[in-house]
Each structure stands twice: as structure tokens, then as C-alpha cells.
Predict the 3D structure of the following.
Amino acid sequence: MTDLANAETNSVTRPRVGRPRSVESRRAIIQSAMTILQTDGYAALNIEAIAAKAGVSKQTIYRWWNSAAFIVLEALLADMPAQESIAPDTGTLKSDLLELVRPTVRALSQRRGPVFKALIAEAQADARFAEAFRTSLMSAHREMVRAVVGRAKLRGEVVFDVDEELAADMIFGPILFRLLNGHAPLDETFAFGLVDTTVAAMRFVETGMRRAAEAAE
Amino acid sequence: MTDLANAETNSVTRPRVGRPRSVESRRAIIQSAMTILQTDGYAALNIEAIAAKAGVSKQTIYRWWNSAAFIVLEALLADMPAQESIAPDTGTLKSDLLELVRPTVRALSQRRGPVFKALIAEAQADARFAEAFRTSLMSAHREMVRAVVGRAKLRGEVVFDVDEELAADMIFGPILFRLLNGHAPLDETFAFGLVDTTVAAMRFVETGMRRAAEAAE
Amino acid sequence: MTDLANAETNSVTRPRVGRPRSVESRRAIIQSAMTILQTDGYAALNIEAIAAKAGVSKQTIYRWWNSAAFIVLEALLADMPAQESIAPDTGTLKSDLLELVRPTVRALSQRRGPVFKALIAEAQADARFAEAFRTSLMSAHREMVRAVVGRAKLRGEVVFDVDEELAADMIFGPILFRLLNGHAPLDETFAFGLVDTTVAAMRFVETGMRRAAEAAE
Amino acid sequence: MTDLANAETNSVTRPRVGRPRSVESRRAIIQSAMTILQTDGYAALNIEAIAAKAGVSKQTIYRWWNSAAFIVLEALLADMPAQESIAPDTGTLKSDLLELVRPTVRALSQRRGPVFKALIAEAQADARFAEAFRTSLMSAHREMVRAVVGRAKLRGEVVFDVDEELAADMIFGPILFRLLNGHAPLDETFAFGLVDTTVAAMRFVETGMRRAAEAAE
DNA sequence: TAATAATCGAGACGGTACGTCACGTCTTGGA
DNA sequence: TCCAAGACGTGACGTACCGTCTCGATTATTA
């Protein structure tokens, strides 16, 4: 389980006395937040609005979440299908990456785009949320690239010392850039181009270590 | 000259009647904004604080800028040395890109990082600012990559149908990703790895057009 | 109790839920308003100044009052001694009216004058306040004249069909006129003259009904 | 001519050099003020709105008037027919007063009411305007009552020592009271009642001087 | 069964900043 | 000297949310 809410929430030693947390309120809060998000956009998403729509007191929200962004992140994680978390393994780096990149690009170019942009923006002003965002949504995506590239390395499909961290940056960086800067569309052409380019890079990059190895020959 | 302020400001046909704009107020506003930014951070940067520090009325600020972000952007553009706007031309793609990437990475990992993050965040919530940001700061940087890659193409250093737009994404996307997500440092190692990888990609990528050309042989 | 504040405040059926209104804030607001009024005058009385002096948020003031004038009116009503609300009953119309008029004239020529002028001015620009002012402070004063004249009528001291409403106008109209227009002093001479004249009028006025009665003889 | 505008305007020794005052601007300003007054009410009457509507600079308005109220007062005085300034002389006090009171009451209950209320309110916050208002509009009205009552005194229609100042207060005070407080209508019934009552008062009042005279017998 | 304790809704509270309005003053070029 | 245009500093407006704080009521565990 992810660690999005206030610290005390997840305290293992929390005494189980007193009235238990209302699952109904929790559901209504998340539901209301997502409805506001889709109806009026992230700019209209604030604690007062969520509380009013959910028929819940502001205190209850603040008790379990630090900000509206945390609620959205929790909803997003809950909404993410389980299979999305498993890295594809089709046999080739290129098709693996396409399996990863195409759905991501498609989702971000449609419904998920505005939310994702808003959460990243939020993270720039809120270190706690940045941490939560990075270690949940983002790390899951990055991990899949690392796994795919790692397997390609074992197959000898890419140079042996390719940096998997950098590979993840090369995949998600451009996507994020187009999403946030909006200078060009997030479409299929882009997805194919991005994967082709990255695969070529992974196969032929001359890293410092490689150059050192060749020099030693 | 950049086009950051309200539309009417830059109207070419604007008649020269009425009291002229106070250059002193303009200077004080920009100066105060940058001081607050460096002292207390972007979160503390608001119109009231700028007006108070600059000894200026809020109305005067609103007359010429739409938000504090526009002031910062204007200051950044004014601060940007002229030579930064000229793409390097050292003879090889790799050294050209290094000339571009290393100073950028260095600046973003130090003083410029927080400001840049804040402006990108701001752009996600303000379409007008996003437009201004994209067409000034961002397009200038992207243009340099396009120029450098274009020259490499003419030299035959990279495949003839490489997409310069995508090249710019491959360079700045990962930088932006690390800056915004903070999962890994923006250091020299990253700069070299990014350039090496991108150069390899540009040289060996098999694009659709290239594959078609080869198939025709 | 008077009905000066927002409508919902005095709702009888208001449920006793939520944090109760802070009596301390209420007291501080009224106190601060009166202090500003006496120190700097009505022109300096604004919501921001009251809030600052009372150590209270503007929102709290707006929650319970519509404007600074309402606060002053509430303070005035609270400050009004109970016995002032009871019409004098000395046995003759003249001495009753003197009991009413002299303290009023004295108060208005001194401390109360500026406040009263300001509230009447306020009422001309704010229909809600005009209503509150008329039905609280003003109607109380008018009612006393009506009561005094009514008793004089029963005693046969004045003509039987004298209009008590008009009588109240004849008493307070000239006082108000001198207060607002400032063409002549509000002094004892004026008070005696006003009462003498009004008593004479009440005793000898030939109203339409009276003329009709005489004509029937 | 009245003395409403800034002091320098009426300076006798004013040098006649430079561009002369624009009669067209003056007309447009007064016209615009009255239009705004009738269209949107006194609350909407401000210097910026007048200047904009009149196609005039704010400076020009401030050069000749101290506030919007002065403009309105000037317009009102210019609009007042000459014959209104001559006290009626019909032979009896009652019909003289009716000639005075009925048109006044009628005008105030219709078009003139809101403007008059607003000007009186304005006078409470602006001593200079209060002075101008009192010595122009108000004194003219009061003077007519004084003249009418003075003639009645000479005819022996009223007691010889009746106070003409007080008489004027007794007439205009109640009118003003009803206008400002709005507790009862300004109608014909009120006008007749007011005049009847005042006439009775003037005929039968026992003033201090009269009582002293009687006591000497 | 009662005491204890945490949660809930409602909503008032102090606080910060917003973006706007109108004020009265000023600085241009032109009449 | 006046005029229009319009920028300027000043001050207050009324609103939006923030995150916190009482309330009384509710719902569990613990004694």
C-alpha cells in the first residue's frame, strides 16, 4: 500500500480505540474530488469545494490528507489497473517499449493529461507531495523501463553498460516535455519516433565505460 | 523584443498620448520580484509583496503584467546574455550538444533550477503564461538544438531524415524530467550520458523513411 | 432584541451546530468601531481598520454585519439606556415634550451629533441600512412622541383628531434639519421654541375633520 | 451667480491669459453627470465615469469642481426656474405656505427626491460642500418661508414675536425628515397637514417674549 | 454497562492574497 | 493656460481559501 496520507494514518502502533474511520466519507471525498476535477478542472479543486460536494467537514479531509493533490494521487493509484504495473516482455526491446509508451502517450494525450500536468505542477511547490508522487506513480513507470532495458541487456540486444536510469529518462523525459510544454502533439508518430530513437541509442551508444573497454583492446 | 505583457502594451499603432510609462517603476517591479524570488522563493512571490517592496501600486503591476510569473519571465529573458541565444558550431554534433547541455544542466542544478520549476508549474495552470513561456524561453532553447542537429545532418553526421523536433525533445525532455521529478541529480555525468546517447540515436536511428529507402535498394 | 445583522443570524430555528459565535470577537469589533469613531471620525471608519484594531479577520465582520454602519447602529442601540425608551408622563404635553426634546437636542449638539449625521447619510446610500435605522433608532424615538401626544389627546389637551405621525415629524424634523444643515444651533432656546410651537399647533390646528365637525353644528 | 466651484475659478483678479475655459467641456461634464444620475443613480456618479462619458479628462473636472456633488449642485441651481426663487404673496399665510410646500413636496416625492437625499448625505461628509449646499439651495428655500411669515406678521396674522427661522425649520424639517427617513409618504395629505399645523402654531404659539408681555399687563 | 476515546458534521475563526475600483495627482503633446 | 489621454501611488473594497478551532453527536474499544 502506498504512503500518501498523513503520517499518523499509517502508524502501525495506532491504538484501535474510538470511532473508526468512516469508509463512506473517504469514498465520498475521493469521488467528489474526481468529479470536480473532470467537471471544472484542477484549478477549481480545493478542500472547501470537495468538502461541500462530499457532504463532509473540512477537518475530516485534513485529518487524512495533506492537500487536494494527495487525494487525486490516491484516486489515480487506486484507479490504475494491476496489469499496468507489470512490465511487458515481448522478446524485443522495441516492442516492449512500444507496449509501454503507446498506452502512456495515448492516456496523457486524452483524459489523464490535465491531471498529470496539475500534479507535477503541484509537486514543484510541495516537497511532501513531490516525494509521494515520485515514489508512487513515477517510480512505477520508471521501474518498468528499467526492467525492459535490463532484459534487453541480458539478451545482448543493447550495449552492456547502458544506464537504465538514463534510459528511463530518455523515454519519459520527452513525453513529459511535450505534455508540459505543449509545443508538439503526443501522438502515435511521436511514440514510434521516440521508441525508434531510444532503441537505436541503447544499441549503439558509446559510453565512457565502453570506450575504455575498446581502448583496452 | 519579447511579447510578455498585456496585448495593448505592445500595440504598434498606440498613439503617444498621455503620461508615458514609468521606466523607474518597471525597473523597481522586476528588481523586487527577483529579490523576493532569491530571498524567499517563488512561493512568497505575490503581487502584493512585489508592489510593497517596489514602492509601487498593485494597479501598476496589473496594468503591465498578468501575473508574477510574467514578471519573472521578463526578468529572465532580459538577463539572458546575447551569446546564449547563438547555437554553438564547433564542427561535431557531440561537442555542439555538450556546449548546449552542460551550461544548461549546470544552471538548472544551481540558481536557475527553482525558478524554472516554478515557471513550468505556473504554466500548467495559466494558458496565457504557458504560451508566453513556450514561445520565448523554451522555443529559444529548442531552436538551438534544431540548428545544431540541422548542421550535423548537412555534414552527413546523422541520418538524413532525423527529426529535429524529436531531437530537441530527446535533449531537453530528460533534463526537465530530472529537474521536475528530482529522482536523480543534474550533474556532469548525466550531461555526458545524455549527449552520448542522443548522438548515438541520431546517427543510427532507423526511421520509417530510412527503412523505406533501404527497402527500395 | 434588535434585528441588525444578517438575516440568517437571527433565524429562530437555527440549529445549534458548529462552533458558536465568538462573543469576544463581537465585543472587540463593536468596541474598536466606537473607538475609531470617536478618535478619527466616521470617515475613518472602515472594515479594514476595525478588523485590524479588533484583531479580527474581515471575514468575521462581514459574516455578521453588512457594513460598518450596522456595527455603529448596534453599538448605539446597546448603549441606549433602558429608561430612554420609556416615554415621559408628567401630566402636560409641554413638559412631556420637553423631557423628550431637551436631552435629544443636547445629545445631538454634542457627542452624538456627528455619529447621527453619518448614519443618516449612510442610510441614503444603503437601503438595507435605511430600513434597519428607521425601524430601530428612529421608530423608537417617534413612538415616544406618538405616546405623549396620544395621552394629551385623551386628556383633551389637544384637538381630538391631531395626527400623531405628523406630530412626530414636527418634533424631530426640525431637529434633524438643524443637525444636518447646520444653519442654526441645536440649543436650549431652540428646544423651548420647538416645543412651544408644536404644543400650540396641536392645540389649535384646524384639521379637515375638525372643520367638518364644526360645520355640522 | 453661486459660488460652487474651486476658489480660483471665481477669483476676480484671475489673469485672462492662456487658453480660455472650454464651454463645451463644461456643458458635457454637467450633462454627463445628470445623465448618469438619472440612469444609474448617485452611487454610480464618480469623477471617472463622468470624465469617460463626457470625453473629458479627469484633470479638467478637478480644475473646476471639488467633487461630483458640486457638479450636481451647479446643475440643479441652473435648472431651477427663476420664479421658484420668488416667495409667493397670495394674501394669507396658509395659501402662501401651500404655494411653497406643495410643489416642493411634489418634486421631492418624484424626480428630485433621490438627488436631494444624496446631496444632503454628501454634505455630512464634506464640510465645503455642506457650506455650498446650505448657502445656495437651502438658504433660498428658507428665505422664502421667512419672507412669507414676515409678511403674515406685518398683517397681524400671526403672533408678533414668532421666530421666522424656527418657522422655516418647522416647514422644511418635517419634509426633510420624511424624505430622508422614509417612514411616511411625501404626499398632498402631508403637505396640507404640515401647513395647517404650522399656521396654527404661528397664530397661537405662546413664546417667552409674549408671555413676558402678558405678564406685564 | 459505563467510561474512554477517536471520528464525524457543521461552521466560526484569524489570516493572506486576490483582482478591482475610485481617488486625486502627475506628465506628456497639442491647441 | 487649458485640454485629452492616461500612468501613477494610495487605500479600501468584498471574496476566496487556507488550516485551525470549537461544538454536540456518534461509534467503537476497554474496564
Q: What stands out?
A: Chain C is about 70% helix and 0% strand. Residues 1-12 of chain C have pLDDT under 50 and may be disordered. Residues 15, 17-22, 25, 51, 55-60, 63 of chain C lie near DNA strand E (CB under 10 Å from a C1').
